[in-house]
Every structure is written in structure tokens, then in C-alpha cells.
Specification:
Blueprint lengths: L1 H14 L1 H9 L8 H6 L8 H14 L2 H13 L1 H4 L4 H9 L7 H10 L3 E2 L2 E2 H18 L2 H4 L1
Antiparallel strand pairs: 1-2
Helix pairs in contact: 1-2, 1-5, 1-9, 4-5, 5-8
């Protein structure tokens, strides 16, 4: 999951730099909100009709859409979140407002660019996984002897 969080942060910083820095200033990491969103496929945090729409696109487009949805939610509420402190942000992201409209949310999701330095989500994630495997080899007890 840490590699997914790292990939998410790459696109978070790219798409929402002010909010990214605001979260960083409070040491607010994606695991605080994203793990709940992803593990429940947004069923706990979004109204059921919206969660169902997210599931439909997830089934069609794959895991990247789950992370794109997370960034879309952050974009939708960026102005509000920039005014909050750590505790209020964490509470807000745990239970999002019930009055989210699908048009607003999906417009924000569509505005998210899932490309960083000409790399798409899958390439960024694969690069992070490759770095991890190479790091494991360098730290392997078998290689030290």
C-alpha cells in the first residue's frame, strides 16, 4: 500500500500543489484518508448512488480510477480544505458531505491529469515497485555475507 500512496502523492502534488503543501505542513499523509476510501471502494465516504457510479467506472478503467476519484474529491473540496487544520481535514475526509452532486464530482475527476513527466499512473507505480525491489536486493541479508 505504501507504493500506492507514494504514486498517489506524485499525482496529488502535480494536480493540486497548494493543497498538497497544506497537507504536508500538517504531516497529513494519504494513509489517513485514502486507505478507507480505497478499501471500501468509497462506499463509506460517498453517498451510495455516487459510490455505485465510481464502481462502474472502476470496473471499466481499473485501479487508476480509484486514485483519480480520490484526487477528484480533493479538488472538489480544495478551497474548504485549505481553510482547515489537521483534525478538521481528517474528520471531513472521513465522512464527506451528503450533498455531493455527481456532476460536480465527476467534473472534478475528469479534470485530474494522471500523467507526470510523460508517465502515466501504471508507469509511475511500476517505477516505484522497481525501486522497491532494487532496494530490497541492496538490503538483503544474503547479499551482505
Amino acid at each position: 500500500m505504501l507504493k500506492y500512496f507514494a504514486a498517489f502523492e506524485v499525482f496529488f502534488e502535480e494536480n493540486l500543489p497548494k493543497l498538497f503543501l497544506h497537507f504536508k505542513s500538517y504531516s497529513l499523509t494519504p494513509d489517513i484518508y485514502l486507505i478507507d476510501w480505497i478499501f471500501t471502494l468509497y462506499s463509506k465516504s460517498l453517498p451510495l448512488d455516487l459510490a455505485c457510479r465510481v464502481w462502474d467506472v472502476f470496473c471499466r478503467d481499473g485501479e487508476e480510477f480509484l486514485f483519480r476519484t480520490g484526487l477528484g474529491i480533493l479538488r472538489l473540496y480544495e478551497d474548504i480544505l485549505l481553510q482547515m487544520d489537521f483534525i478538521h481535514i481528517a474528520q471531513f475526509l472521513t465522512k464527506l458531505p451528503e450533498d455531493i452532486t455527481s456532476e460536480k464530482l465527476f467534473t472534478c475527476i475528469a479534470a485530474i491529469q494522471m500523467q507526470n513527466s510523460n508517465k502515466k499512473w501504471a508507469q509511475v507505480f511500476a517505477s516505484l515497485m522497481k525501486d522497491n525491489k532494487e532496494g530490497d536486493k541492496n538490503h538483503s541479508p544474503a547479499l551482505k555475507s
